[in-house]
Batch of 2 targets.
Target 1
Amino acid sequence: MTHLVIEEGAPTRGRTFLTFPIKSFLPALPLLLVIGYFFLFPITKLIYVSFLSNENTLTLGNFVTAFKDPYKTGFINSIKIGLFSAAIAAVPGAVAAYFIETRGSSKLRRTIAVMNGVLANTGGIPLAFMFFAAIGMQGQITKILKALGWDIYAGQFSLGTFTGILIVYLYFQLPLMIIIFSPAIVALRREWVEAAYNLGASQFNYWRTIGIPLLFPSFVASFLLLFASGFSAYATANALTVGNLPLTPLQIGGLLDGNVSASQLNLGKALSSVMILISALAIIPYLIIQRRTSRWQKR
Amino acid sequence: MAEALKPKLQIPLVITLTILGFFVFVPMISAFEYSIRTPLEGGYGWTHYLWAIKEEDFLHYIIRSAWLAFLTVLITLLILVPTITWLHLSQSPLRVFIDGISLLPLVIPVVAFAVGAQISLPEFVQSTVLELPFLYFILALPYAYRSLDIGLSAIPLKTLTEAARSAGANPFRTINSVIVPAIRGSVMATVAITFALSLGEYTLTVLLHWDTFPTWVTYVAQDNILGAIAISMMSLIIPFLILTGLTLALPERSNQGRK
């Protein structure tokens, strides 16, 4: 009896049982395969190899070297350049995003969005050229300032120094800030301003109690992303410096190219792993804040 | 208080744009001035641009970079549009996982990614330049995924798919002639970011020892610096013009951004 009942129920149950697991991941398979093979596999292997000695035994030796000079200075410089460039770009970028999003026409906003997209991706030799032409030794601005009585090259300044790189990084950090902070501005509803004013709030009151508290998490998140961007930039630093300023991305590049040799074969991988860790410490909070704020930003 | 509701003065916007414009265009114009100098005759001219265009490698690398970028865009759209559509429709538990994992490339510095790719991908992958579009796809994934995800969240996806299905469209047709047109703003944004990123990618390309247009510019700079500045200028201005043209040519969807 029981046997018969089960057989009768089988077709429908069997079909859902069979199709469910396939349907639940098959359409995502191409994406999962590409991400797995071209991203997760290389990163996992990188982290694993960073714990291997030259004889392929597990070791922490690579990391011990990674935290000694010159690599220690490299990390300090890279973290400093990430922090400084983010700190300088964050507030002006946020203010610019506010005025562009709230006062700009649709055409203007879209044009600026495209421009920012291109500018945030400039780097390397083209960016270095622009700044050599503007504030390099023979740059236009350098000449104008000199004529006005300020020789910017009188002191230690050059584009390959920390200050020089910092100025150049702002060229892509500012547009990046505008790009990532704009959605938060767009999500500020006009009704809230109107409601606040109707209840008798002044502009100052509105910003103190509504505007800034609402935008602050997005601002912090943007700052973190900017830090990661400045911290890990390679192309521009590579074009500007001639090995005079130790920066971790350049040190890794040098080890990978074989231009610099180290007795530990996997030192470059250890440096990369530490970079991933530092970057993750900034990006993961960024993603968490983004996720939380996007709840009220969705209409 | 009532004046706050009136159309606001544009002065703050003008000031903002002036300062930003100054910072953005002064270096650009300075470099442009350099690129049209003719040191031999002492005046200005298009010598370096003509030199660059006549260079045999110029066209070669432009074409190479363009088709690599084109392939990246193609891979991005072919993989992401159906997958994200499906994730939205099926309410698969995978969605949370894929949402998270698609943002992960943001965490990894490109230099570290290059090292990882170099030590892990087998010879047959690393010996073909076709590895680059897949790696560029990964780099652009966080932006592309988010843009398409937002686009698909903003349309009545279920209604549209059901309507298309009852009108007799197969899934391919549904995506191609119903969903993609409905989210064309997001699709264009995805195309723009992916294309721009692939065209300009330098770090990964150079560390994996490939030559594309951006790495070629670095190489040329060693011989003819003014020519290289001219090429750099073109590499900035051309994508900008193409992308601005694309964005402005598309009518803005009336229900996007305001309600």
Target 2
Amino acid sequence: MARDATTPPSEDLIHVEGGAGLGAAPAASVGAEEMVGSVVSSPARAAWRRFSVNWAAMIGLVTLTVIVVVAVFAPFMHTSSPYTLNYGTLDAGPSWHHWFGTDGVGRDQYSRLLFGLRVPLFVGFLGTLITVVIGAVLGVVAGYAGGYLDFVLSRLTDLIFAFPSFILALITVSLFGPVLDPYFGGGGRVILLSVVFALVSWPFLMRFVRSLTLGLKEEQFVEAARVCGTTDWGIIRGHLLPNMWGLILVQVSFIVIGVVSTEAALSIFGLGVQPPNPDLGQMLFDGISRLDYNPWEVVFPSVALTMLILSLTFVGDGLRDAIDTRMNN
Amino acid sequence: MSGLTRFLIKRLLAMIVVLWAIVTVVFFLAHASPVDPIRTILGQKYNAVSAAQLRHLFGLDEPLWQQYLTYLDRLIHGNLGYSEGAATLGQPVWGLLSTGVPVTLKLGGLALALSLLVGLPIGLLSAVKQNSVIDHGSQFVMMVLYAVPTFILVPIAQLVFGAELRWLPVSGWGDPGILGIKEMILPVTIYAAALTGYFAKSFRSFMLEVLRQDYIRTARAKGLTARLILYRHAMKNTLLPLASIVGPTIAFLILGAFIIEYFFSIPGIGYLSISSVTGSDYPVVEATTVLIAASVVIVNTLTDIAYALVDPRVRLE
């Protein structure tokens, strides 16, 4: 396979993951912080130490936390209803009354933005959760079982991997979105979006987890566990998964970015959450049509979306540098 | 049978299976739709008699499996059917595609060329001046370019250069003369932005990898100039990894045109695809999806084959 030429053999992953921060990594790649730390430290703690000295990653983490808090506590922080139309103030700029101005039908943009953050965050969370469950389970099963089962699962993965995921999401949501809209108080489409994104994005993770499993199951500690009579399930749960979670977490942060961006893109084509429910992508899309009247309607949603995606990117990069230490030297 | 022949046959067979699966999934998805295309076409003029006539005309009154077989048969013979959309009703889908494809290819080709022209030198400079201010500064800018989604860059660019400064048109494509060139500047630049970031970041790491190799140290030890080492020894060895990312990027270009074409009203495949999805024009949805999927699969297969030709280790698996 082509990817083998660019990635190091999988044994590398295991040594690094198992011994991250225990002196296995070359001194040049380890922060000064680490040298003065205690002699024994868990891989997770060492990874956190590397993460916390990375200023870009920490800024990303703080921004992301603020965004999540704002979205969760939106009902306590908004200044007026995100749904109330006010034909007295159409397309207004920022003011004391409307911090971020109003849109084309006079709704308060600040309040809509707070609630609009919830959609990408929720879809990002749920979509990624489903992706990880499907991808990790199938990857571990295929890699561990091998043989016929591995062949079937791998070919299925190849097939879905080859499918242009954006188009599949586009078609599915445009066809079945209207049917699901009435359910869960308008949330039917949000769930559909999450499921669709998960269905198209798991193959990538499955391949990744499968290759990790293939490398790990030949390791001596797995051999030892098997000799001791540990069941297959016990080996997977007690020996394989604990050695993989860090690397999976790194992948997860990039999957979230993909899901959030795709959700916003679909909203821009009018296929996301339907009006009048607030959604960041939808606000941006509406703002573009009001560009000549009130540019602020483009500015605030795009700043919010950019901050969300950039903070996720910085956190993802920080996680990769902290956990996946083979990239550093 | 030699390893290479076996590899080629395997890849081509896999490609055909994938294409068939895509055609089938798209066909049944479109036909499982709860939206009735006939009702959309007729709108206010809907009545049972003309609906039945239209249904018969499009072959929609036949059983689903019959429609599927007819569709496959037509597809193999290059007949993509006729548009069911309100604006382009009855036009052959083939004609719609053949006007859209050159537009998308030109847009993508220009963006790819621009991003390589800008991204590779920046990546090279970063690698040569590793850990300098230039390196950190340019890598930060490249990461932001790569990370900020197109759908945010587009409205901001339209706002600044179109609505405020009024330097460049915010929509249109293919007008003659100077206007045609001005129309291309914004879409091509924004399209190229993310790719530039990607190429610059990737090329930097490829270059650093190569510069660490023993043969570079040997070249330096025997007294070659830095310039000669860089251009004659290092550059050549970054070509293979570079090819491995440019290939999939071409597939992405075919796919990534959606947002750019939609925002700038450029009549390419992406625009056609979106408008057919929102207008319930199923023959066009099927055709554009299959076309895009096919190009992605074919480009990926060609990349794999090219890789196997260059690097014999790949064939062994």
